[in-house]
Structure formats: structure tokens, C-alpha cells
Amino acid sequence: MTCIKAQSMIMPFINNKLNIKEMEEFLDHIGSCPNCKEELVFYYALLTAMKQLDEDKNVTNDFRLALDGKIKRAQEKIIRVKYTYYRKITVLILFMILLAFLLGFQYAEKSIENVNNVTESNFHIRKSFRDERYDFLEKQLQEYLNQQEVDKMPLTDGE
Questions:
Q1: Local confidence band at 126 (pLDDT 50, 70, 90 cut-offs)
Q2: For labeling, which of 28, 100, 114, 133 is most exposed (least CB within 10 Å)?
Q3: What's the pTM?
Q4: Torsion angle of alpha carbons 77, 79, 85, 89, nearest 10°?
């Protein structure tokens, strides 16, 4: 986050108008940038003093302590929101795993009940068919080789 963007978020932060993501980015920047932190302290002191004067309250001198408390509460709120978010995600994932397990278990029970065990079959693999097929191929190969030998034989005059 740039300093200009952070400075534009000072008033919304003081007035509690930032969403969680903006607040987190703002607080990260304020924590690392002393110039923007001083700007925040100045505006917070000014606005708080004006608000106290408008309400006819005594103006306190400890604005920095009040601001530190506000920043700490904002950080706790961010942590609480993140914790809630991750807790919800975890519960959702666990629920989906449980649902998948229960549906898988139910499906497995149904498939076990519907198993059709074969006790007798009219289909028989015949070894003879395989042997006949290989014998036929062997016979064709031999005929081809014999034909090749006959074609290579030299012709003699006496024949």
C-alpha cells in the first residue's frame, strides 16, 4: 500500500468505516511507515479532541494511548474474523468428507447387495480353438516357405 492510499484511509479508519481487508492493509502499512503513523496520531488526536469538545467532555491528553487501544482492538477484530472464516471452511470441508464417506459407504452396501455371483456358465474357453488357429497359421507359413524354396530351385534340362 502506498502512503497516499494509507493517508486517504485515516478518516475511514477513525470512523470505523473500513472493511476487514482494507483495515488489515492499512494497519500493516501504519505498522511499517512512521510518517503515516504520525499522520494517523495527529488526525486521531484532532478529531477526538473536537468530538470531546462538542460533547462537553474534558479533553484528555493521552490520545496516543487511546489510538493504540483502537489499533489493538482492530487487530483483534481481524484475527477474530480470520479465525471464524477458517473455522467455517474447516467445518465445511469436514462435512463434505463425512458426506462423501457416508455416501460411499451407502453405495458400497448397495453394490454388495446387488452382486450377481456366477455359479455356472455356458461359456467355455476351448483350448482346441486356440490350437487349431495356431496350427492353421503354422500350416500357411510352411506352405509359403515351401513355395519360396520351389521358386528358388534352378531348372534343369532333363525335367
A1: low
A2: 114
A3: 0.54
A4: -160
The rounded distance, in Å, linking the Cα atoms of 28 and 52 is 29
Give me the residue label for grid cell 484511509.
Answer: 9
- Mention every residue, 6+ apart, whose C-beta is less than 8 A from residue 155: none
The number of residues in the chain equals 159
DSSP string, the chain: --HHHHHHTHHHHHTT---HHHHHHHHHHHHH-HHHHHHHHHHHHHHHHHHHHHTTPPPPS-HHHHHHHHHHHHHHHHHHHHHHHHHHHHHHHHHHHHHHHHHHHHHHHHHHHT-------S----HHHHHHHHHHHHHHHHHHHHHHHHHHSPP-TT-
Q: Give the alpha-carbon dihedral of 136, 138, 139, 143, to 10 degrees.
A: 140
Give residue 113's pLDDT. Answer: 61
CA-based nearest residue to 26, from 47, 44, 5, 41? 5
Domain residue limits, the chain: 3-101
The pLDDT tens digits for 65-124 are: 888 889 999 999 999 999 999 999 999 999 999 999 888 877 776 666 666 666 666 665
Cell of 61: 491528553
